[in-house]
Amino acid sequence: MISEPTIILSGTDPDLPQNVPLGIARYNNLREMARGGSAVLRSGFDCVTGRTVAIKSLLPETRHDRREQRRLLREARVTAQLQHPNTVPVYDIGNDEVEGMYFVMKRISGENFFEILKRIARGDEATIAAFPTEARLEIVASACQALAYSHARGVIHRDFKPENIWVGNFGEVILLDWGVAKVWGHADDNEPINRSVLKPRESDGEQLRTLTGGGQRPGTPLYMSPEQVDGNRGIDERTDIFSAGVVLYEMLAIREPFRGADINETFDNIKNKEIPPPSERSPERDIPKAADDVVMRAIQKRPSQRFQSMREFIDAVRAIDC
Questions:
Q1: What is the 3-state secondary structure of 86-153?
Q2: What's the CATH number of domain 22-106, 3.40.50.1820, 3.30.200.20, 3.40.50.300, 3.40.50.150?
Q3: For a tag on the chain, would you pick the N or C end, based on fewer CB atoms within 10 A?
Q4: For 253-288, how does the pLDDT look when each residue is reduced to its tens digit (9 = 90+)?
Q5: pLDDT-based confidence at residue 193 (cuts at 50, 70, 90)
Q6: Catalytic residue among 46, 96, 124, 159
Q7: Does the annotation count 159 as an active-site position?
Q8: Pairing state of beta strands 51-58 and 27-35?
Q9: From CA 147, how far away is CA 178, in angstroms rounded?
Q10: Where are the domains of the chain?
């Protein structure tokens, strides 16, 4: 869990520093927070504003990849333009002479939602007490508020999952990682997210481990909608509703609904398998019938049979009486 930085007197000094460096050199005390396949997230201290920030930049091996540069810039600009309480503020976007493309965000204390679900799966009593079903439902509903806002502005997230929901130490819920977002009216030049027709990578089996087993999770497959699996470029906001339904199922049952032995089986489950509602999958968790109804409508195979707007889904989630 990331702690909140302490405000110190030197950070409020009224005198601006002389000869402020350009690019990432403006930030000192850089410390790695997280690393993905193409980018790294670091914390740093901004000597001008006197605050600790988060800086996302490409790794050395992807720094000169034009596709990765476009994807990072798209993520930065989409995030910057989605100004909502459940999105993270972007402070700066730049192209450093040494480290290449980067953007600077507010650094948020807390942890991602999946870490919370892992501890619940392991039976951690303190986490279960701190995050009962009602609290977890509100976390999902709050994250979906960011989706409702983005949908109203023509942006589909396409990667809604517990790892991308940040739960702050002071009640904040932030939806992160707009790197594969679809913006209406723009060519989709993001990296394809459907790998069903590709040769599975050697790490796919490792990525599709059980919820209680820990380890790295896949970036998208477990939460994809059937239309994403089919590679349909005509997706709309109902694909995010499907993913939100999967997250809601996992949050209630502490099990992913469509997990298969590998990615191809997972994709087949998403497209074709009828799964039991959360209360049947995890009868020991006393999941209310109303929650079953919301989940099963959200994860219908046909978009026309799901909730037709994110606001409708949020209202249904918040109406669940635990």
A1: CCCCEEEEEEECCCEEEEEEECCCEEEHHHHHHHHHCCCHHHHHHCCHHHHHHHHHHHHHHHHHHHHC
A2: 3.30.200.20
A3: N
A4: 999 999 999 999 999 999 999 999 999 999 999 999
A5: very low
A6: 159
A7: yes
A8: unpaired
A9: 11
A10: 22-106, 111-318
